[in-house]
From TrEMBL:
One of its GO terms (biological process) is FtsZ-dependent cytokinesis. Belongs to the FtsA/MreB family. It is found in: Cell membrane. Residues 20-216 form the SHS2 domain. Signal peptide: none annotated. Cell division protein that is involved in the assembly of the Z ring. May serve as a membrane anchor for the Z ring. It is a peripheral membrane protein. Gene3D superfamilies: 3.30.1490.110, 3.30.420.40. HAMAP family: FtsA (MF_02033). Keywords: Cell cycle, Cell division, Cell membrane, Membrane. This is Cell division protein FtsA. Pfam families: FtsA, SHS2_FTSA. Self-interacts. Interacts with FtsZ.
Length: 436
């Protein structure tokens, strides 16, 4: 599609094993996973998964040169990515040439478009579906933005909606609704530039909220309507699934690291100490003993032999609570403005590193007026203990993505025919393509 940013990934073949490498470039961490996708029988809760992911290489390290998903220092970002990818390559015993990469940068957003084409009473063929999706693409996104995902969410035949797959059916007019997730082209180009410096090709770009939803939601939730909130380091993303499809995605540039900076400023401690206080003692829900519980703090610039200061745990809660409420309120207001609060039903699933904060589900229930549960990545075997938490949902979702990417529309890549349309090489190439 626009600037060929949509997936160039070949879907995994049913019954065949496949290797996949994914790279999660976050604001606080970078993670690379190399996995083997092995065919399996579909489960009851995760029906879309035709393969089981077995991790053979894992690399993990702090992020550098990236802020809110945007590359801010190309040298630092390259160094951080090389370290993590090298770690995963050594563990797997192979060298990577291409990876799946997540996208949070570029003011991620989504819109729904509709289009229709005439069938003249003929059967619906694959070319008709491509025609109608091309019609959507031709008038969808502004020039400065590129499409990351184009997901058909429903077909209509002669005005009859709710058709899942119209292929083979007969009608006069074929319509389609497509959820288009887009981001700013230049932000993604910088991401591509960094990876080229690491000698890596981008096989596919996956929107972070979509990946988190794929990892954390069970099929029944996605069918009935659900919103997946991913609390990242410097961004919070939301995706809404309904009738089994992604219908909305959005991102705001506030995340868990902003909580850490709030604590560092208010208590006059270093950022590293603030992160430790948030992880060990942080809560957004006041407790009965909070006024009595004292936490030791080491002010910035204090001498080594100086006795540490003390603050009540309730002070920490009072610093963190307003920021969490700000994030939840911003998400709620955006979803209400687009009508997605009604589409997502009565359920929110929270994932990402920031979602493990004590008391967050209770505060989210009050602010969003919905049922809330914490989500963790499901159905991925072989991840080390450190990577089984909610902070690694995006990575797990990108391992699921090759199994569902066949639902998307991608711009056909032009191929040069060396000997004309019916030459010997063209015929052999066609036979190879259709046979294997």
């Amino acid at each position: 599609m626009t600037d060929a940013m949509t997936s160039r990934l070949r879907p995994v073949q049913p019954g065949k094993a496949s290797l996949v490498a994914v790279l999660d470039i976050g604001s606080t961490k970078i993670c690379c996973v190399i996995a083997r996708l092995v065919p399996q029988s579909e489960g009851k809760a995760l029906r879309a998964r035709s393969h089981r992911a077995e991790v053979i290489g894992f690399g993990y390290g702090p992020s550098s040169g990236v802020k809110s998903g945007v590359v801010t220092d190309i040298e630092k970002a390259e160094h951080a990515i090389r370290n993590v990818v090298g770690m995963a390559e050594r563990a797997a015993g192979l060298t990577l040439e291409s990876v799946l990469v997540n996208v949070t940068a570029g003011r991620l957003g989504s819109e729904t478009f509709s289009a229709a084409v005439s069938l003249d009473g003929q059967e619906v063929e694959k070319t008709d579906i491509v025609r109608v999706l091309k019609a959507v693409n031709s008038r969808s996104v502004r020039p400065e933005r590129s499409i990351v995902h184009a997901l058909p969410i429903g077909y209509a035949l002669d005005g009859q909606k709710g058709i899942r797959d119209p292929k083979g059916m007969v009608g006069e007019k074929l319509g389609v609704d497509v959820a288009v997730v887009s981001a700013e082209t230049l932000a993604m180009r910088n991401l591509e530039l960094v990876l080229h410096r690491c000698h890596l090709q981008i096989e596919a770009l996956v929107a972070t909220p979509y990946a988190s939803g794929l990892a954390s939601l069970v099929d029944d939730e996605a069918q009935l309507g659900v919103a997946c909130l991913d609390f990242g380091g410097a961004t919070t993303t939301v995706s809404v699934f309904n009738d089994g499809h992604l219908v909305y995605a959005d991102a705001i540039a506030i995340g868990g690291h902003h909580l850490t900076l709030d604590i560092a400023r208010q208590l006059s401690v270093s950022v590293a100490d603030a992160e430790r206080l948030k992880t060990l003692y942080g809560s957004v829900l006041p407790g009965q003993a909070d006024e009595r519980d004292m936490i030791p703090i080491q002010p910035v610039g204090a001498a080594l032999d100086e006795a540490p200061g003390q603050v009540a745990r309730s002070v920490l809660t009072r610093i963190m609570r307003p920021r969490i409420e700000e994030i939840l309120t911003a998400i709620r207001d955006r979803m209400q403005a687009t009508g997605m609060m009604d589409v997502c039903g009565r359920r929110f699933v929270m994932t990402g590193g920031g979602s493990e904060l004590t008391g967050l589900p209770e505060v989210a229930r009050r602010t969003l007026a919905r049922n809330v549960r914490n989500g963790r990545p499901m159905g991925i075997a072989g991840l080390p203990e450190i990577a089984k938490g909610a902070a690694f949902s995006t990575v797990a979702g990108m391992l699921v993505y090759p199994q569902v990417c066949s639902q998307e529309y991608t711009e056909p890549r032009g191929t040069r025919k060396l000997t004309g349309t019916d030459g010997y090489i063209a015929r052999v190439g066609s036979w190879l393509r259709h046979s294997f």
